Amino acid sequence: MRALTPLEYDAEITLEANPGTVDSAHFSGYKQAGVNRLSLGIQSFNADYLKALGRIHDDRQAIAAAELALKTFERVNLDVMYALPNQTLEHALRDAKQAIALGADHLSFYHLTLEPNTPFHRTPPSLPDDDTSSDMQIEIENLLAAHDYEHYETSAFAKKGMQARHNLNYWQFGDYLGIGAGAHSKLSYHDKITRETRPKHPKTYMEQAILGNALERVWDISRDELGFEFMMNALRLIEGVPASLFQQRTGLSLHTLNSAIRTAQDKGLLTAEPGRLQPTLLGQRFLNELLALFLE
What we know:
Layout (H helix, E strand, L loop, with lengths): L13 E4 L6 H9 L4 E7 L3 H7 L5 H14 L2 E8 L6 H14 L3 E6 L7 H4 L7 H17 L3 E4 L2 E3 L6 H7 L12 E5 L4 E5 L4 H9 L6 E4 L2 H12 L6 E2 L1 H7 L7 H9 L9 E2 L3 H5 L1 H6 L4
Parallel strand pairs: 1-2, 2-3, 3-4
Antiparallel strand pairs: 4-6, 5-6, 7-8, 8-9, 10-11
């Protein structure tokens, strides 16, 4: 990998994997190829919830895959969901305790969302109500804090110094180059900021790459959209970002957002700390409402 693409010596190279499709030979091969961080889509350690989600792995495979990943890679993230169909607070906390017990240095906890054009969206299952989901979120956050996981982004928790580097760059509205099927890019030029997507199907991607054009779509982010695009990423960070970063990354003056910032502060969603854009605890809990202010 390094012979073909020059990288920093300690560059973070993350591979995403699912527990039902891994084995020791695969993991060893990935490590030899240069992968030094693995993100594993556990979702739950409960067989019934995994079945309800339509996952191909069960609880035993989830634990076995996590243990194998932790033996093979120096850095491991486990993705876990909560507010699953018919899930109780007790069961959500069991999943969190199991994730902690495995000892991964990075954990991601996501609230289940019903995405459009999916079976769940067409036929919604019985989900925990808002109060129960909120209790799950709060109790999981408290449990992780008690075990020295820093809550540094809406859904991300890490041991000291183990935050995901790519994700930090992404949330700080940095640039990134997507390579491979379904990959996305965000690239800044002196007069514009551009997004790119590549075909999702591997065969289509390879056919177009051979012809020298693997791009599916390229578009510029308009000046009217830049404020929302920046905030959509930056305000996911629990500590927020320096206010000066807005102009550095967008080329626009922060004054263009003064009205939305004042409204957010008046509603108690954004701190009033000078020189910083940071969500309050209320803003973290109601992030969509906070971000909607920057769409107006």
